[in-house]
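Handout, section 3.2

Students often ask what a structure token actually looks like in practice. Rather than define it abstractly, here is a full record for Palmitoyl-protein thioesterase 1. The first block is the sequence as you would receive it.
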Amino acid sequence: MRVINKLLEILLTVNDLSIITKRPKSPISTITRHTPTISDKTGHLPVLLWHGMGDSYDSSSMQWVSDTLQKEYPGLDIYSIYIEQDSQKDKEASIIGDAMTQLTDVCEQIQNIDYDPLKGFNALGFSQGGLFIRSLVQICDVKFNNIISFGSPQNGISDLPPCQPGNIFCEKRNELIKSKIYTDYIQNNIIQAQYFRDVNNYETYLEKSAFLKFINNELFKDLEYYNRLISLNKLVMVMFDQDETLVPKESAWFYDLDQKTGNLIPFEETDSYNYDLIGLKHLHKKGKIDFLKIDDIHLKLSEEDLTYIAKNYL
């Protein structure tokens, strides 16, 4: 229980609580460029938002996102996903709970929204919300068009938030917590542990992970997950160049880590891509994946950044 309390303490204080708004500095950078096809064909579809860890569906940061998108497209139908309607409980549910159960509940939630089932939704997810939006596409029998993830652990996280240099106590504490992260209790109750992917302890991850190994088809290939993801018009993955919260930050682009060297494995060289486990290779070959980056810290967004997304993908 002491380890669990320490883990909660860290998760509640990590600098991933909400979007940090900023004045325009430099526009979002496009690494792969494809001409958007949404607006001419489908008009402005309703938009789903999924907040990050420690945030809530009706927070000031999520309201800012909604206001910014509606400034570009007045009257745009926007729905902010929640686990609990009470703000504080929704915030707690982003840390404590079972991710797959939450996704199932959200699937039922959005099926009750008034939308065109043939056209479906566009969706934006922030930090872990981006992983959950992508997962929602896979598990939920609902049409999605474009999904955009911002600084999201698409291929999991490999470490806890970094310690200050020389803080031996912090380093030892993190080591202890990581040694307990694949216990049944933590896997079944702590959301962030459910997408913790330790490449140095990969067999244990495959045995004990309660969420990520399933949604990334690492244990077996779920063809329903695969077929739903490849039905997307566009998968957009945004990485923050100065991100120190997401470890590694390149997980936002679905990079992997080499189990032997610890070096980054680029997107097109990962097992997920080569074996096309969830459909990434299929989408990429069809020009349906865009890699974007913002030269700033985790979830630091400007109105200009969101306007770019709105104009190109909503």
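Discussion prompt for tutorial groups: Residues 60-72 form the longest helix (13 residues). How would you have guessed this from the sequence alone?
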